[in-house]
Write a structure and sequence with these properties.
This protein is α+β, with helices and mostly antiparallel strands. Helix content is 40%, strand content 18%.
């Protein structure tokens, strides 16, 4: 058994492997054993490439033995959302529209870069079908379950990635985010999820949902791990140094804005956790002030229109060829895109520019914005609504309203754990101006140095 675990900081894993203090093959075997024990109850993975992972670990070990640089993620076991193409497994997109999946072929650029950095790909994680949903209640492969309580949703659409990280079934994972699909499951499962500035990471080799809103990003235990993953996925030494340096940057000179929009209609349990998080942040920054962004009022509806129109543009051929290959609920949501008009799409794009302008205006006065990731706790899998202070709300609407605006504007946005209630995690959202990725990560790292929520583990992982 390895002396390291999937909960060890990624940098420490890589150092131990590089200095031959631990065998990457042993670590990978340990994680594969954990997957065998716990994936049947969590359903975090759709497929596991055990043989390929062990072969990759052996290559890293050989590289180290030959005194070659194995990379900044040497021996780190990672999972890939099954929306992203990989060379060692088919890509299903959580659907049957590709039959048994798009055949294994060439890695997507972000996967290729992770492998070059020394990471070991374990397998492909479960998701909401074709990424069109926020719960990962997959109608073909079964729901991805929350490690904190398996009767509750893991969030979506990158639910399997979040569940795998939280349960220790990988050390880090890759997700995608169109209206919150990295940050939503990160909040639900109590992990760190980062959506970078739009196009900072390439979407090439990723099955699209809404190309103008889709983002790829890391899901990890800590902000420090997310920064290391970002550097590796950008793929240059300079990027690795840049993002690692950001973790050491002081937050003392930052002016923080508390976004009124991102704190509306919170469940009392969430509101208490966010309030405590804001009190923690106070001494870490120069100033905290409340801000209003009226330009966001139409953001959620515009995001839904853009997503619906762009999704149907891609999926039209598959819907016409094999409509029954979609789960009934996802098919119904997808087909609603046919009702959208060109006028509605163009109006939504105009709202998008208004949203961007609103953020630009606010970021002239503050460096970073803060709010909640979700307004309430993750619901049970068999519930089709969420409850906010006793009132029912549509799950998709409730889970996307604090997240969709940042996708419209292409802003870097981070969700970090900030509390627990009734045994379920709560997420704090930190987001900044376009290109302000390092500042967002710097504040997130400062918050995690002062708190312990990111170190809490679900019962299944203890």
């Amino acid at each position: 058994m390895s002396a390291l675990t999937p909960f060890t900081d990624l940098q420490d894993i890589a150092k131990a492997v590089t200095h031959r203090q631990v065998s990457p093959s042993e670590l990978v075997r340990d994680v594969l054993d954990a997957i065998a024990r716990h994936n049947p109850s969590l359903n975090a993975y759709i497929s596991v490439s055990a043989e390929a992972a062990l072969e990759a670990a052996a290559k890293v070990e050989k590289c180290v033995a030959q005194k070659k640089d194995p990379g900044p993620l040497a021996g780190v076991p990672v999972a890939i959302k099954d929306l992203i193409l990989t060379a060692d497994a088919p890509t299903t997109a959580g659907s049957r529209i590709f039959g048994d999946g798009i055949p294994a072929g060439e890695d997507a650029p972000v996967v290729k870069r992770l492998r070059k950095a020394g990471a070991i790909v374990l397998g492909k994680t479960n998701l909401h079908e074709v990424a069109l949903g926020v719960t990962s209640a997959n109608e073909h492969f079964g729901p991805a379950r929350n490690p904190w309580n398996a009767e509750h949703v893991a969030g979506g659409s990158s639910g399997g990635s979040a569940s795998a990280v939280a349960a220790g079934l990988c050390a880090a994972a890759v997700g995608t985010d169109t209206r919150g699909s990295i940050r939503i499951p990160a909040a639900c499962c109590g992990v760190t999820g980062f959506k970078p500035t739009y196009q900072l990471l390439p979407n090439e080799g990723v099955v699209p949902l809404s190309p103008s809103l889709d983002h790829v990003g890391p899901m990890t235990h800590t902000v420090a791990d997310a920064a290391l993953m970002m550097g590796a996925m950008i793929g240059t030494r300079q990027a690795c140094e840049r993002f690692t340096k950001a973790l050491r940057a002081s937050s003392k000179g930052m002016v923080i804005g508390i976004s009124e929009y991102h704190l509306r209609d919170l469940d009392d349990e969430v509101a208490k956790a966010i309030d405590k998080a804001l009190k923690t942040l106070g001494p870490l920054v120069k100033d905290i002030r409340e801000v209003e962004i009226p330009e966001l009022e139409g953001a959620q509806e515009a995001s839904a229109v853009i997503t619906g129109a762009e999704a149907i543009a891609y999926h039209d051929r598959y819907l016409k060829a094999s409509p029954s290959a979609y789960g009934p609920l996802v098919r119904k949501r997808m087909e609603a895109g046919y009702k959208l008009t060109a006028l509605e799409y163009l109006n939504a794009m105009a709202v998008r520019e208004t949203v961007r302008a609103g953020f630009v205006r606010v970021f002239a006065d503050v460096d970073i914005l803060i709010g909640a990731t979700l307004p309430t706790l993750p619901p049970r899998i068999d519930e089709h609504v969420v409850h906010i202070n006793g009132k029912e709300a549509n799950t998709v609407d409730a889970f996307t309203r604090f997240n969709a605006p940042q996708n419209l504007a292409g802003l870097p946005a981070l969700s970090v754990p900030c509390g627990l209630s009734r045994g379920l995690p709560i997420g704090l959202q930190i987001f900044g101006p376009e290109g302000g990725d390092e500042a967002v990560l710097a504040l997130g790292a400062a918050f995690q140095r002062e708190t312990h929520w990111h170190q809490r583990r679900p019962p299944i992982a203890r």
